[in-house]
Structure formats: C-alpha cells, structure tokens
Amino acid sequence: MKYIDIQTDDDEKFRQSLNQYNEYLETIKRRFKKDFFEFYTKIGMHDSILTELKLVKKQLRSKTIINIETHWVNYVDYEKQFSLKFENVRKYITNLDLSSGYSEFGDYILGEFTAIDKKYLSFEFLFYNDSTVYLEFENLIFELEKIGEPYSKTEI
How many domains does the chain have? Predict the structure, then answer.
C-alpha cells in the first residue's frame, strides 16, 4: 500500500500512516459519489466478509471490457450487505492462496483508494490472512442494502 504502513508493529507509526492516508483521501474525495465516500469514511468496510468476487467480461464492438463485481456482508450486522462493482478494470492482482484449504479470506482488514491518473483509480485491500487484492478501474458502482431490500445505489 502506498500510504498505510501494514508492515509495522508500532501502533503510533501505523496511526500516523493511517492519518496520512485519510488526509490524502480528502484530496481525491471529488472522485467519489457522496454517499459512497460517507459510507467508506464513516461506516467503513473493516471486518466485512467478501462473499463474492466475480470477473465479468463485456464484449463491445471495438474492445472487451472487464468488470469485477464484489459482494460483502457486514461481520457485525449480517443484515447489512453492500456491493462494489469496479468497471473497466485494467489491472487485477491478487496473492490469494487456497492451497492449504478453505480459510475465511473475506475478513477485510483495511483498504486504500488512490488516484492513478485523471481517468483511473486503484483500490488495494487486505484480508486478515495477509491476502491482498489490487484493482485499477475507471468507474465504481456502490450499492448498500438490507437483506432482500436495496438501500441506496450510486456511481463514482
């Protein structure tokens, strides 16, 4: 991650890096829809469980577009679910290793959005077993819902 120091055991150093990231996030705030930004900065995704990660290929006349759809359940309140759909993904990297059998890789610890350029953002997120996912994407669709009942939907 660019801002958040996940390698340190020093709480003070970690908090400083987290504060630095939060200051940076404010500088790119306009790249997000208001309701997603409020959700991400106030409610957050910490301890959410990733229940689905799907790569979707969309064939256009002149090119192929890849979208990645994710669905999450809040670990504390299972009644709350949300989804993030990353559109026009140009890079997807993960170190998820399932060779030792199933592990709850979906326990989200923290993540970091950064601006790549004027068109693309990145999102890197870390799970409790040190697995990471890194995406570079053009557009984000956010949906917050209660089980069986959509709550809100927005795009950045």
Answer: 1
The residues, ordered by sequence, that sit 6+ positions from 82 with a Cβ below 8 Å of its Cβ are 39, 48, 71, 72, 74, 142, 143, 144, 145
**Residues 69 and 85 sit within 8 Å (Cβ to Cβ):** yes
Whole-number Å distance between alpha carbons of 79 and 108: 17
Q: What share of the chain is helix, strand, coil (3-state, %, to 5)?
A: 20, 45, 35
Domain that residue 50 falls in? 32-155
Is 7 part of any domain?
no
The string of pLDDT tens digits covering residues 7-43 is 888 889 989 989 999 999 999 999 999 999 999 998 8
Q: Is 13 within a domain?
A: no
What backbone phi and psi angles, to 5 degrees, belong to 11?
-60, -40
Is 42 inside a domain boundary? yes
Q: Residue 14: in which H helix or E strand, if any?
A: helix 11-27
